[in-house]
Amino acid sequence: MVSFSIQVLVALLGAGAALAMPVEEKRQDAACTGPLVRKAWHTLTDTEKKSYIDAELCLMKKPSASGLRGTRTRFDEFQVAHALKTEIAHFVGQFLPFHRLFIFAHEQALRKECGYTGAQPYWEEGRDAGAFSKSILLDPVLGFGGNGVGPNKCIQDGPFANYTNSLGPGYLVQDHCIDRDINDLFSTTAAAATVERCLNTTTYLDFWPCIENGPHGAGHGGIGAQMLNPVSSPGDPIFFLHHAWLDWLWAKWQAKDPKARLTDMGGNNKGVLGGVFGGPSSPGFGAPGGPGGPGFPGGGAPPPNIPGGFTPVNLTRPNDVPEPLVIGDPGNTTTLSHLLYLYGMTENRTIAEVMDTKGVLCYVYDS
Ligand SMILES: [Cu+2]
């Protein structure tokens, strides 16, 4: 508990420092020359795939130094940092910027701490829509291994089969395998028509819920098990390629009208939680057939064939996890001044700073 409080304090101090400097001034400091180029997994060479997997395995071996609850390794720290932000990073305006910074922090850790020289790859899920079970991503040698098996749905093969997560499902601190429960029906949410519908929106207020309730659900629901848990899903390394895909979609959408869309932000800071991740009015992670949820059009009934139903377990924040704070954004509307803090996983940034991937983050996508 004590170490956790220190983490919060560090986050708050970081917030103060970030807010002390005017946003515009900080942005101009960022001269992004030679951006990293993020590529789709299926376009990587075997050597590139292997080097990414090796770097992830390296993070899984590096001891945790943060004191974040339950962590043993650097990889665990990403999972826990995500868990601690779950409530204010989903079904809110910061959904896309938060995950952009989160994936960036992971990419930086691979590069700075594990000798990785590539960029964060993304999983172009549209290629595998309706057939995740056959995706090359699940290759046992040059991929992330296959489906889970048995009552615990533990993955059986691939480079990550022997990893023991220290957190999850939800906020629980307990050892378990990386599990999967692949659902090809759910993966249809990655289909081109769903993606196109989002890309054809013209405001962030339409684009973000379209993505969060649509394509976002493909990777989470299609891979299932841990990936379907909104708190602990980064315990499966596929998470990072899934969210990089969503980030790619956001960048593509922004590039259609950069003048307007590189500053287009909005949405609620808080408010749709408590029942969001389960329960009858839940938007869930987007069911086939359309987006839904409080304030979003369409309604979002879970598909009937998810074993055990759609409600992920253990979503009640335990007493030793403080409520995450909204910093720099006093109202309930998400603005560019909103501070994204990541419990020390990377430098805290305002949303303004991460709007353009060619700013302080300095990366682009291959297409
Ligand atoms: Cu998330």
UniProtKB/TrEMBL annotation:
UniProt feature, compositional bias: Gly residues: 286-299
Signal peptide segment: 1-20
PROSITE patterns xrefs: TYROSINASE_2
GO molecular function terms listed in the Swiss-Prot or TrEMBL record: metal ion binding; oxidoreductase activity
Entry keyword set: Copper, Metal-binding, Signal
Tyrosinase copper-binding domain residues: 236-247
Gene3D superfamilies named among the record's database cross-references: Di-copper center containing domain from catechol oxidase (1.10.1280.10)
The keyword S-adenosyl-L-methionine belongs to this UniProt entry's keyword annotation: no
Protein name per Swiss-Prot or TrEMBL: Tyrosinase copper-binding domain-containing protein
Species lineage: Eukaryota, Fungi, Dikarya, Ascomycota, Pezizomycotina
